[in-house]
Amino acid sequence: MDPTAGNVPGSAVPGPDHEEPGLETLQFREEIQRLMTVPPDNASSFTALLELPPTQAMELLHLSPESEPNPAPAAVSGKPPLLEPCAHPFNSSLTFPSNAALIERAAKFSIFGGGEQSPETGAVPSNPGVNLEKVKSEPAESDSNPNSSQETKNNQRSSAKRKEREKKVKVSMKKSKIEAKEDADKIPYVHVRARRGQATDSHSLAERARREKINARMKLLQELVPGCNKISGTALVLDEIINHVQSLQRQVEFLSMRLATVDPRIDSNLDHLLATESLSLMQSNFSNMTPPIMWPELPINGNRQQYQQQWHFDALHQPGWGREEDNHIFITPEASLISCNSSANSASLHTGHVKTEL
Amino acid sequence: MRTSTTTTSSGITLSTKSCRIKFARRFLRSLAEIKKQKRSSASSSEEEICKRSKRIKMAAYSSMARAVGPRMNWSRALLFKLRNRVSYPRLVKKKKRVTVRSNKVPRSKSSVHIDRGNKLRKLVPGGKSMDYICLLEETAHYITCLNTQVKVMQAIADNLSK
């Protein structure tokens, strides 16, 4: 029986089928090499950040242990590898090598500045959920210690520079304040602006303006009310104003009572008073006008000269109509319209007096 | 001859001479009308004198308010009050309530100022509807007008009595 003729169910067929796993592994390695030599599209941004050619960047990463015996990336790039590859498995966390040039380049970008650790000592895990304890237990590399000391020195220098800048700013602020004070001394004080230590709120400014208005009105009232300039204090000034207004109103009441109790025989002269008053107002001689209130008694056979002298006497003794306490203008018979020296005027006065008597 | 002018803070200049002239003219006219009414009623009892004095006082205030014109609040309020009193005479007088205040209660400065302001509001006509600053301004104007009123009435009374 030929072994080739019959198919034994448990037997394996030798031949090219046995070589398929080897070919698959070779193909898989070739694909890995292609991936390593030609980086994917999403890796281009990372290589651009590091400013390195893609092959060298992939060398630095050393993603798989299978790429160790394969010298293809180094041959393609033409440069020897910078550092020895890390012996971590693929699923473990990866650490960047401590190269000074790369660290300086990486420090420029904000990708590495997010964590609390420094970029040279910080680990970048591929799977954050796997082997976190291993990452914690890994000791820091010895090469990173001098770099960290340099960074602390740089930080100290930068902090010193910041302090110097702050001091300069403070000095400039002080100078500006001194200049502002000098300007304020030169320029007169504006009431709207708040002084130092006072509130600059709009409500307080409005309240201050209101208080200034009240003070101005109070000064005006103090000038009007006699004997109020000596008093200090708004409450006392208000009391004086109230008393003054009340006294004036009482004076008006008293004068109205006095005018009501005037002798009835004098009331007939009010019409004449009104007429003379209107005449004086037309001539705008209100303050100089003395209307005849009490007509002098004339003797029937009297002389005109005697009447004139008697009228002058009465005019001298009668109080002037335009007399004022402020102006102190007292009317003399020469200034009055009624006193006159001509006989014609005296005759007209005599006839007028007769008419009024009739 | 100098004329005294008072300038209030709001810019209203009160010429006391012109105000005095206007007031004197109006007051003398109203006084003549009152005297005519007096002639008709020959009886001169105390009641008649009181009525006449009230009329004279009202005439003085109304003539003062008309002389000033409607530019000031107190004059407007006074004219309005007098018109209402003429059209609707009050028959029943209101009784004033006297409130006794104990001095034991401590009073602050603000309450003192409020009390003074309320007193002044009662004295100045139309003061209840004013704020404090406007009240002080109106009070100043009202005092000057009262001064001129008193002087004119004094002069008329002196001239009539002698």
UniProtKB/TrEMBL annotation, chain A:
Annotated spans, Disordered: 1-24, 113-180
GO cellular-component term (any): nucleus
GO molecular function: DNA-binding transcription factor activity; protein dimerization activity
Principal cellular location given in the protein's record: nucleus
Pfam families: HLH (PF00010)
Keywords, sorted A to Z: Nucleus, Transcription, Transcription regulation
Biased composition (Polar residues): 142-158
BHLH domain sequence ranges: 198-248
Subcellular location: Nucleus
The keyword Nucleus is assigned to this record: yes
Designated name of the protein: Putative transcription factor bHLH family
Organism: Rosa chinensis (China rose)
From TrEMBL, chain B:
One GO-annotated biological process of the protein: regulation of DNA-templated transcription
Species of provenance: Rosa chinensis
Domain IBH1-like N-terminal: 18-85
InterPro entries in the cross-refs: IBH1-like (IPR044660), IBH1_N (IPR059002)
Pfam families attached to this UniProt entry: IBH1_N (PF26576)
Record keyword Transcription present: yes
Keyword hit for Transcription: yes
Keyword list, A-Z: Transcription, Transcription regulation
Listed name of the protein: IBH1-like N-terminal domain-containing protein
